[in-house]
């Protein structure tokens, strides 16, 4: 049976690396993986959406709307924007933080993280909200949001933590391996 995952955020947050880590972990487990990214203006802080499809009965890299088992959102506004991908009964792993888009800043209408999390809970039901700011403070790096969220996805049953760590070892520079593993293990 296929497992469909959407990973979304904004440029520079590590969404593409997170998709590669999930893909590598599944491949190492002997599973078939198809993935794709829609990046757009990511280098300018624009939206990034990665599709990861795991399983033998997958023939397209793009997850159809309403078919994602899990939505991993690197910020709350992107979770709201991409909620249509989530299937009924699916799980949302979401960073509580909102990255204010330029349009919101210019108009003076800031996005409210509590409103967005509340909306997600109404629509999705199964929502795991993670305070990645707290995690990054405790871990001493703002560059591990992606691994903190993958760790939360692991605890939600998406992927085995040991497989995740093995994939990180293959894909992350050795000097950053321990930090990334501590991020995966971070729990609150």
Give a quick precis of the structure.
With 188 residues, the chain is an alpha/beta fold. Helix content is 43%, strand content 23%. Strand 4, helix 2 (76-82) and strand 5 (86-95) form a beta-alpha-beta unit.
Relevant terms:
188 residues; globular; alpha/beta; 8 helices
Description:
By secondary structure, the protein is of the alpha/beta class. 43% of the residues lie in helices and 23% in strands. The chain is built from 8 helices and 6 strands; from the N terminus they run βαβββαβααβαααα. A hairpin with an 8-residue loop joins β2 and β3 (47-54). α6 crosses α8 (174-185) and α7 (161-171) packs antiparallel against α8. The longest helix has 14 residues, at 15-28. The radius of gyration is 16 Å and the shape is globular. It starts with a strand and ends with a helix.
Compute the separation of the termini in Å.
Answer: 31 Å
Helix content: 40-55%
DSSP helix count? Answer: 8
SSE string, helices as H and strands as E: EHEEEHEHHEHHHH
- The average pLDDT is 89
Please mark out the parts with pLDDT under 50 across 5 or more consecutive residues, or reply none: none
Which term fits the overall shape?
Answer: globular
The biggest beta sheet is recorded as: 6 strands, mixed
Strand proportion: 15-25%
Structural class: alpha/beta
| Strand elements, count | 6
Radius of gyration: 16 Å
Strand order of the largest sheet: 2-3-1-4-5-6
């Amino acid at each position: 049976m296929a497992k469909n995952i959407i990973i979304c955020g904004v440029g520079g947050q590590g969404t593409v690396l997170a998709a590669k880590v999930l893909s590598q972990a599944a491949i190492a487990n002997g599973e078939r993986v198809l993935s794709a990214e829609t990046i757009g203006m990511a280098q300018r802080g624009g939206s990034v959406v990665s599709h990861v499809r795991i399983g033998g009965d997958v023939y397209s890299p793009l997850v159809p709307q309403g078919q994602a088992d899990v939505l991993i959102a690197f910020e709350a506004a992107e979770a709201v924007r991409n909620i249509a991908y989530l299937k009924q009964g699916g799980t949302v792993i979401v960073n509580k933080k909102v990255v204010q888009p330029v349009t919101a800043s210019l108009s003076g209408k800031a996005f409210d993280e509590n409103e967005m999390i509340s909306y997600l809970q109404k629509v999705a039901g199964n929502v795991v909200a993670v305070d990645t700011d707290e995690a990054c403070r405790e871990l001493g790096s703002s560059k591990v949001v992606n691994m903190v969220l993958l760790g939360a996805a692991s605890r939600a049953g998406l992927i085995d933590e040991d497989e995740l760590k093995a994939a990180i070892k293959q894909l992350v520079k050795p000097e950053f391996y321990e930090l990334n593993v501590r991020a995966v293990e971070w729990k609150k």
